[in-house]
Amino acid sequence: MVNDARGSGIKLEPHMIPKLRAAFQDAQRQLEEVVRDSGRSLPMTQPAMGDAASHAFQAEFNQGAASARDQLTAYQARLREVDTALGEIQAAYDRNEQAIAEDLSRKLVT
């Protein structure tokens, strides 16, 4: 969990975070559709013809398709991680703003 907004190594202005999160969440939704649709259309269940070349192509195609799907799934997980980190950074900014507001309030009262 990010406790300090400066702990990420990236300088983000607080107003930028909601737009960044929305972009990452949109990318996640798009990837969900691609991964879901690939599960319906892949793997190639039968070779085009009964010859050895068709069987070899089917095996190569299915191997490549599985690898590509695994890579998309890993990318999707990374997008979720970034979105979570951005949420934690936003929370750290919010906590910091709250602490500053409380400190200023105390100074006004005294």
Give the topology.
Elements: H1 17-41, H2 52-109
- Strand content bin: under 5%
The largest sheet is: none
The ordered H/E elements are HH
Separation, N- and C-terminal Cα atoms: 35 Å
Number of helices: 2
Assembly type: single chain
Counting helices, strands and paired strands, the structural category is: mainly alpha
Protein name: PE domain-containing protein
Organism: Pseudonocardia eucalypti
Would you kindly provide a written description of the structure presented here, covering whatever features stand out?
It is rod-shaped and about 90 Å long. The chain contains 2 helices and no strands. It is mainly alpha-helical and 110 residues long. The two termini are 35 Å apart. The longest helix is centred in the last third of the chain and has 58 residues, at 52-109.
Label this structure with key terms.
about 110 residues, 2 helices, mainly alpha
Structure summary:
This is PE domain-containing protein. This protein has 110 residues and is mostly helical. It is 75% helix and 0% strand.
